[in-house]
Specification:
alpha/beta
């Protein structure tokens, strides 16, 4: 807790095919704040930013993340501008994987957040486990394309 009240942290991600790397980021983030908000990126935002649908729909990803002990609140992100998200949630610290550190996007994010007093904290990427790796493994197993899976849901 700071002299100005509880420290609110925000850790955003797709959290698709939830794995130990996601858990590590959320646990590390919680150690640095009093109240942790996990931002689950919506399906539409993932298509916009990564060009593909997630394997697990946003509502289900949010439900999974909501039940992680270190997460105090879940917010489904529907806008691309993190500053707009900050205006709604008013967090003090923004947590991000260190794959953004030193990149033009990361530097821009740091600059924009500095203007409103938000600290950007980077955490190491879990190299041995990623949703991309899991997605590739599923593809090798011959799982049907995502659109077929989605269309077959009741």
């Amino acid at each position: 807790m700071s002299s100005h009240g509880p420290v609110v942290g925000y850790a955003a991600g797709a959290f698709d095919l939830f794995h130990v790397g996601h858990l590590n980021i959320l646990k590390q983030a919680k150690r640095r704040c009093d109240h942790l908000i996990a931002g689950v990126v919506s399906d539409e935002m993932l298509v916009r930013s990564k060009g593909r649908l997630p394997v697990v729909p946003a509502e289900e990803r949010a439900e999974i993340v909501r039940h992680i002990d270190c997460v105090d609140q879940v917010h489904v992100e529907t806008v691309p501008d993190k500053l707009e998200t900050w205006r709604e949630l008013r967090f003090n610290i923004f947590f991000k994987g260190d794959d953004w550190r030193g990149t033009p996007r990361g530097l821009s994010l740091e600059e924009r957040f500095a203007g409103v007093g938000v600290q950007v904290v980077y955490f190491p990427y879990t190299v041995h486990t990623s949703s991309t790796t899991l997605r590739a493994a599923l593809a090798m197993l011959g799982t049907p394309p995502l659109d077929q899976l989605r269309n077959s849901r009741p």
